[in-house]
Amino acid sequence: MNIVIFSDFDATISVVDVGDAMFQKFGNWNQHWNEYINNECDVKELNKRLCCSLCSDLTFKELNIFAIEQQIDSYFSKFVDFCRSNNFDITIISDGYDVYIRPILEHNQLSDIPVFCNSLKKDNNIFYPVFYGAVEGCYCSTASCKRNVVLNNSSDDDIVVYIGDGYTDFCGAEHSDIIFAKSKLAAYCNAKRIPHYPYKTFFDVYRILENKIKTKNIRPRHQARMKRKSAFEME
Known about the structure:
The chain is α/β, with parallel strands linked by helices. It contains 11 helices and 7 strands.
């Protein structure tokens, strides 16, 4: 069976949540995050407010410098090599922003990995987001729909692998066959009794996945297949 791999970026590939760090450094993170957790806005509106809060004199060059200072998981590049040697497609799906994701990947010689993420734009000295894939049929906690990236970049016969850590990964993970989860995603999987593999770094992901391949312990997850089928029918 063909294996396709989808990975979150912030606090999954990157060591910290770079998007949060960007808004904490250059914007008004605390105020707008409190508005979100107090149910004063949804996640899309949160992103709009955060982008608008970025300093008007902030330049994309400054954001690029900030980006390349950020660290990624020390085993991620080796994991990408493992995927390529086995002809596994790997795609990054993020509710974060191109202004830091693409420079970080380029800085680590990984710019050829396909990326689905939001874009940060600026007009009349005001920053604003452009969301890549929000859909009416999905109600997960993302500004853009990770689930649909999974659906549109895999086939019925693929084994879908998902790697993530947070709220924005819940829906994408639910539609995947093999899930690697930590932090909030792991807690969600535990609460929903969704089978998953806990991990700390991409070395754990590599080790577990390699062993599953060697032992031919790769199979679709029935509930994920049904969810993917239902999502296609709804769209």
